[in-house]
Design brief:
The chain contains 8 helices and 26 strands. It is an alpha+beta fold and 400 residues long. The strands form 7 sheets. Strands 7-4-6-5-9-8 form a 6-stranded mixed sheet. The longest helix has 19 residues. Bound molecules: adenosine monophosphate and magnesium ion (MG).
């Protein structure tokens, strides 16, 4: 059996597709992965501006006036500057009324906020002299020209789009979406919406897999249920290899099982059956079909969910060109006890204010355990968990 980290390392060694880049509109770029580094093309802000509603003045003017014994002498308010309007140079010994975001006029270097002064009949009296440079956002305070802002492989979040927009960019170069072909295997499967015959079950894996893959930003090519006809499976898999970058199937990878998908993958490419020390989800297949990576997930609904999240996800994100970084694991207090296991166990738990609660059934066929939980507790091989232990918790929300 492979440990989880051995399986991850083996999968990451499988050759990944090289995706082309494409230039898209910034408005459509949320969740896409950058195909080139982004360097600043502008200083932001492009000119010094005010951080407050107040008055701009030259600090030295006021200091020298007070040293000359004119400390309380008011300053003439010589102009008014709203955000978006360009200022006149400040006349010496005067102040400019201005508002947040308005440019500092040449000749001024400090802003006093309106709460710290009195303005009356066109005259400004400063009650509390701020330090020189106060309330001024200098040019380039946020971004300076040429600075690296974002790197190849970053997935664009809302704030990243905002940053690119602040540079005046309305297009961005990203990797084309990874195309993932999906196949559900099993003679017992029926699509939802159709009546269920004897011995049949609904194809739930298709929806679990599609949802995760779409959430990761991939283009899913759904090939539906693989019928039990070798010729049909062969043509489906060949088509998948032509259209998609990666092929994923569920079911039919248990050792010794009679399954056409396994046999045909072997004819069209290569197939490696792994036994991974993970619970749920021990059987896993990795291979190629006509040169495209093939991942064969187990059939049990929770095994599909867990192996897609834990084993397949890093490979798929890397295939998309993304630098995903390590999985985010937090520490939570266990509100349950659990005997050790010979495999690494991914327990479905609910997060509460006091810690994590174990879902009542941890069977790999119990899909409610995945739906009625907030994340996974990773129980290392052979370690028991006692109430009050600090355990590794992986929230579903960090795996999206
Ligand atoms: P298998 O790995 O094909 O032996 O499947 C293991 C279990 O998962 C069996 O109980 C299957 O009926 C079930 N199963 C397989 N594929 C699916 C699917 N697409 N949706 C729901 N259950 C499935
Ligand atoms: Mg099956």
């Amino acid at each position: 059996m492979l440990t989880v980290s051995e399986a991850l390392a083996r999968l990451m060694a499988v050759p990944r597709p090289a995706l082309p880049g494409e230039e898209i509109a910034l408005v459509a770029a949320l969740g896409r992965v950058l195909a080139e580094d982004q360097q600043a093309v502008l200083d932001v802000p492009s000119a010094a501006n005010s951080a407050m509603d107040g008055y701009a003045f030259c600090h030295a003017d006021v200091v020298s006036a007070s040293q000359a014994g004119n400390g309380s002498k008011p300053l003439l308010i010589s102009q008014r500057i709203a955000a978006g309007h360009s200022p006149q140079p400040l006349q010496a010994g005067t102040a400019a009324r201005l508002f947040t975001g308005a440019e500092i006029p040449p000749g001024a270097d400090t802003v006093v906020m309106q709460e710290d002064c009195d303005a009356d009949s066109g005259q400004l009296r400063i009650r509390e002299l701020p330090q020189r440079g106060s309330n001024v956002r200098p040019r380039g305070q946020d971004v300076s020209l040429g600075q690296y802002l974002l790197h190849t492989g970053q997935r664009l979040r809302a704030q990243d789009l905002g940053l690119l927009a602040s540079q005046g960019l309305d297009r961005v170069r990203v990797f084309r979406r990874l195309k993932v072909a999906l196949l559900s295997t099993g003679d017992e499967l029926v699509e939802p919406g159709k009546p269920l015959g004897p011995g049949q079950i609904y194809n739930s894996n298709r929806y679990t897999m599609m949802g995760l893959l779409q959430g990761w930003g991939f283009e899913v090519l759904d090939l539906g249920i693989a019928p039990d006809q070798p010729e049909r499976i062969r043509s489906l898999l060949s088509e998948a290899a032509q259209l998609a970058d990666v092929i994923i199937s569920s079911g039919g990878v248990s050792v010794g099982e009679e399954d056409h998908v396994k046999a045909i993958v072997e004819q069209l490419g290569t197939l490696d059956l792994w036994r991974i020390a993970i619970k749920p989800g021990k059987p896993f297949a990795s291979g190629t079909v006509a040169g495209k990576p093939f991942l064969g997930l187990p059939g049990n609904p929770v095994s599909v969910f867990v192996t897609l999240l834990i084993i397949a996800r890093p490979f798929l994100l890397a295939s998309q060109g993304m630098n995903a970084g390590p999985m985010v694991v937090s520490k939570e207090r266990a509100l349950f006890e659990k005997a050790g296991n010979s495999r690494e166990d991914y327990l479905r738990v609910r997060l509460t204010a006091d810690g994590v609660e174990l879902f009542s059934s941890q069977s790999s066929g119990v899909l409610t355990s995945a739906s009625m939980s907030d994340g996974l507790v990773r129980q290392p091989m052979g370690q028991q968990i006692a109430v009050g232990d600090s355990v590794d918790f992986i929230a579903y929300s960090v795996l999206t």
